[in-house]
Write a structure and sequence with these properties.
Layout (H helix, E strand, L loop, with lengths): L7 E8 L8 E6 L4 E9 L2 E2 L7 E6 L7 E5 L1 E4 L2 E6 L9 E10 L2 E13 L29 H6 L1 H12 L9 H22 L1
Parallel strand pairs: 1-3, 2-10
Antiparallel strand pairs: 3-4, 3-8, 5-6, 5-9, 7-8, 9-10
């Protein structure tokens, strides 16, 4: 069992002698690293390229420069390995790509296609703190005038709240039994008022 995760490998066969262009289309989670790994064939047989003469070219629609380039690798047996990493993604929904393979006879662009980016947690989830939502009570409108105003102005409620606050003199902690007793008194009063209104 491997002791580390490996990037997803997207493999396909590319016939270099065909006249018909055959693009591929892969869905990729935003934030993951994938290895584009076409196997280059000439009439069904692997075509080898020098290892250092392979590159990935991809189109970034939101970037001013257009085509971007990243080194890739020829690994033997006709297989090219071209990475697509999170730092190559600038937020586009799709990327057209070409794997440029060179040898003494010229450049081959037959390994090409489109990456479709799919939403995900991304490469670094929760880099920003969660937004804190605040309530502006000055801007709130009371939609239940039959309850809120009379409840807040009630002398009994004010008395109960004063009783509750008196259990917390400054700098003097009170027991949980005393606090619970005061809370029970306020809750009993609120339930009584609710029954009267219904």
């Amino acid at each position: 069992m491997p002791n580390r995760a490996h990037p997803v490998t997207l493999s396909w066969d590319v016939e270099t002698m065909t006249e018909k262009l055959k693009p591929v289309r892969f869905e990729v989670f935003r934030g993951e690293t994938v290895m584009l790994a076409p196997r280059m064939l000439h009439l069904g047989q692997p075509v080898n390229f020098p290892p250092d003469l392979v590159a990935t070219l991809w189109w970034r629609h939101k970037a001013p420069a257009g085509w971007w380039q990243e080194p890739a690798l020829a690994t033997g047996r006709g297989v090219l390995v071209a990475p697509f990493r999170p730092d190559m993604d600038n937020g586009d929904n799709t990327y057209e790509f070409f794997i440029q393979a060179k040898n003494g006879e010229g450049i081959n662009y037959r390994a090409f296609g489109t990456l479709v980016m799919v939403g995900s947690p991304g490469p670094n989830p929760n880099q920003l703190p969660l937004p804190t939502k605040t309530i502006d009570f000055d801007g709130m409108q009371v939609l239940n005038p039959g309850m809120a105003p009379w409840l807040l102005d009630s002398p009994e409620l004010q008395s109960g709240l004063q009783k509750l606050l008196s259990t917390f003199p400054a700098g003097t902690p009170r027991s949980m039994d005393e606090i619970n007793l005061a809370l029970d008194g306020v809750l009993t009063f609120l339930q009584h008022l609710k029954k009267e209104k219904s």
